[in-house]
Specification:
Length: 261
């Protein structure tokens, strides 16, 4: 793994925790729901493809949301979400494998496992349709990508700049996410996606991540080339409010290209 000296303290702590976590004994065999078909259905329905994230908390969020993850996911799908992302990192994000299992049983759309997967054994913790690999933190990206695919996972490879994009493409990534959040200062800049997107081949599915809060942000990322958008805080940061807010927040983003009000 590349040096972590330039990372924010909270990110270094997350990586340390991830390195200490064990994996599962049995190798998974996943029958995934197709992300590509889900994106195509959203486009055909006139919806912006949004991957809505069930995220109880994070180092960049205030408070904790204690709602049932499966119920939240159902409300997001009712609001038009194309897929659901579930945090399974327990220490800093309040996630769990059980939450992902519950969500995947409750919805019929693809479910992304979002975590800091650093080695092959980490892949076997829980079944999902899509698994996240962060290019910067994986020593052998091609090897871990192949291991994930051998289990049946579709793989979202996350990058932050053009150098990481080249690493992802060389490893054979077919779905790439560009994270707008800088991991040193934890600041968000949508220009990050705009600077990387022009260099992504047309046959790669491209996802914009982080910092997408408003319909205007959605339109901006789509105009820059995003096939889909991963949104967490703009939907989830309403601790103590009702699930109906989650549905409305999701719909506000999924209709950003058609709703002129």
């Amino acid at each position: 793994m590349e040096t972590t000296g330039d990372l924010a303290a909270s990110v270094r702590s997350i990586l340390e925790s991830a390195g200490e976590r064990g994996g599962a004994d049995a190798v998974l065999d996943v029958d995934p729901r197709s992300v590509e078909r889900a994106l195509e259905r959203a486009e055909a329905d006139g919806r912006v493809p949004i991957i809505a994230e069930v995220k109880p908390t994070s180092p960049t969020s205030d408070g904790v949301r204690n709602d049932d993850p499966a119920t939240l996911a159902q409300e997001m799908v009712a609001g038009g979400a194309t897929a659901i992302s579930v945090l399974t990192e327990p220490t800093h994000f309040g996630g769990s494998a059980d939450a992902l299992r519950d969500v995947r049983a409750a919805v019929d759309v693809p479910v992304l496992r979002k975590d800091f997967v650093l080695e092959e054994a980490h892949l076997d913790l829980v079944e999902a349709d899509l698994v996240l690999l962060i290019a910067r933190f994986v020593d052998d990206l091609a090897g871990l990508l192949a291991a994930a695919r051998d289990r049946g996972f579709q793989v979202l490879v996350e990058v932050h700049d053009r150098a990481e994009l080249e690493t992802a493409l060389e490893a054979g990534a077919e779905v790439i996410g560009v994270n707008n959040r800088d991991l040193a200062r934890l600041e968000v800049d949508l220009e990050t996606f705009e600077s990387v997107a022009p260099h992504v081949p047309d046959d790669v599915t491209l996802i914009a991540e982080s910092g997408i809060s408003t319909p205007a942000d959605v339109r901006r990322m789509r105009e820059a080339g995003a096939d889909a958008l991963l949104v967490g805080s703009a939907i989830m940061d309403h601790a103590g409010e009702t699930d109906g807010d989650v549905r409305a927040n999701t719909r506000r983003l999924t209709t950003a290209e058609t709703d002129t009000t």
